[in-house]
Specification:
This protein is of the alpha/beta class and about 350 residues long. The chain has two domains: about 1-95, Alpha-Beta Complex (Outer Surface Protein A, domain 3); about 105-335, 3-Layer(aba) Sandwich (Rossmann fold), CATH 3.40.50.720. The chain contains eleven helices and 13 strands. The protein has helices at about 30-45, 50-55, 60-65, 85-95, 115-130, 160-170, 205-215, 245-255, 260-265, 275-295, 330-345; strands spanning about 1-5, 10-15, 15-20, 25, 75, 110-115, 135, 180, 195-200, 220-225, 230-235, 305-310, 315-320. It has an eight-stranded mixed beta sheet, with helices on both faces. α5 links the parallel β6 (about 110-115) and β7. α5 (about 115-130) crosses α10 (about 275-295). It is elongated. The model is unreliable at about 330-345 (pLDDT under 50).
Length: about 350
């Protein structure tokens, strides 16, 4: 057995030690030697307990007696790989707190479609999160507003975004498999489609893109930079819950001139510059939900958009219904049939 990496032992008083902080386990009646051994075990987490204890002259029987007093989540089996990455270490601590470890992200491919400054932030967070493969898509040039510390360089302005983003990510994450996508959003190479696409747009979601992902049953997360905020979500699972066309139809129900306005927003060609703190918060929220999807954990953005701005420290949110006129999900088909039945009656 080995001590769980990242789990700390704290001294409380003579004869009293504590394992962890949240969900803490307190041991009392310890001898000075037992308290010292606990500290040694936590400090030598990559080695078997017996090896660490033997350095101080402890016998296997003494170690076994102390182990019986420890919570089972403080220890891991010798065959379990040593936790290397920060995300894996964090999930090891959550596992100790009783949360089931998610599926391995190394088998997941995510795609970022739209590589402005916000999209590049999201791509970097996904790469840092330990996913198995990352695909980048954008045929637009780097704009002056895309330049920021740790992102695009001023010398890259005017050049294509995707190659510049790939070069940056290869420098930062040399072992991460990276690929670019063609104009249709299809990853280049023979590795197949992504498991989820994060779409970054300005003003309003691009219907050409989201319809393509909808028709190929590819889950996608919408991120839209608007005049006063960033709208993160919904995360669309085709055939389950509202799609982005449902949102457009819902907005048209509220304002019949919305399609005219949306067309102008898509054609404006003038990206809105983002306030730095809200940009970081929006990127973190989008990456968090994309990684939750990668982990097969519940996501908060199903049928929901979070609105991130420079005024509110906590994002506001709005939920969306499946629109009965869309036909994208069984719910809309059922609603449409009911309406037809009422009309016929």
């Amino acid at each position: 057995m080995r001590w769980r990496p990242g789990l700390t032992v704290y001294w409380r008083a003579p004869g009293e030690s504590q394992v962890g902080i949240e969900g803490a386990h307190i041991l009392t009646g310890l001898s000075p030697g037992e308290q010292e051994l606990l500290d040694l075990l936590a400090a030598g987490a990559t080695e078997p307990l017996e090896v660490v204890a033997a350095r101080r002259g402890w016998t296997g029987r003494q170690v076994a007696a102390l182990v019986t007093r420890l919570p089972p989540w403080a220890l891991i089996e010798d065959g379990v790989p040593v936790v290397a990455s920060p995300p894996a270490a964090a999930w090891s601590r959550w596992e100790a707190a009783g949360v089931e470890r998610p599926r391995d992200r190394a088998g997941v491919c995510l795609q970022v479609d739209g590589l402005d400054a916000l999209g590049l932030r999201i791509a970097c967070l996904l790469a840092e999160g330990g996913i198995g493969r990352l695909v980048l898509a954008d045929e637009e040039p780097v704009r002056p507003g895309d330049v920021r510390p740790g992102g695009y360089r001023s010398s890259e302005v005017g050049g294509p975004r995707a190659p510049a983003a790939l070069a940056l990510l290869r420098r930062l994450f040399p072992h991460l498999p990276l690929a670019s996508a063609d104009a249709a959003g299809t990853p280049c190479g023979d590795e197949g489609a992504a498991d989820l696409v994060v779409m970054i747009d300005h003003g309003v979601s691009d219907p050409l893109r989201y319809r393509r992902y909808l028709h190929t049953d590819l889950p996608h997360l919408a991120v839209v930079v608007r005049e006063l905020d960033v709208c993160v979500g919904p995360l669309v699972r085709p055939g389950h819950g509202p799609c982005l066309r449902c949102i457009e139809l819902t907005r048209t129900d509220a304002d019949d001139r919305w399609p005219v306005l949306a067309t102008q927003l898509r054609g404006s060609g003038s990206p809105v510059p983002l306030e730095s703190a809200s940009a970081a918060l929006a990127a973190a929220l989008a990456a968090h939900q994309a990684l939750a999807f990668a982990d097969a954990r519940p996501v908060a953005l199903s049928a929901t958009s979070y609105l991130v701005d420079a005024i509110h420290p906590v994002p506001r949110f709005r939920t969306w219904p499946v629109h009965p006129a869309c036909g994208c999900a069984p719910e809309s088909l059922d609603s449409g049939a009911q309406r037809a039945g009422h009309r016929g009656g």
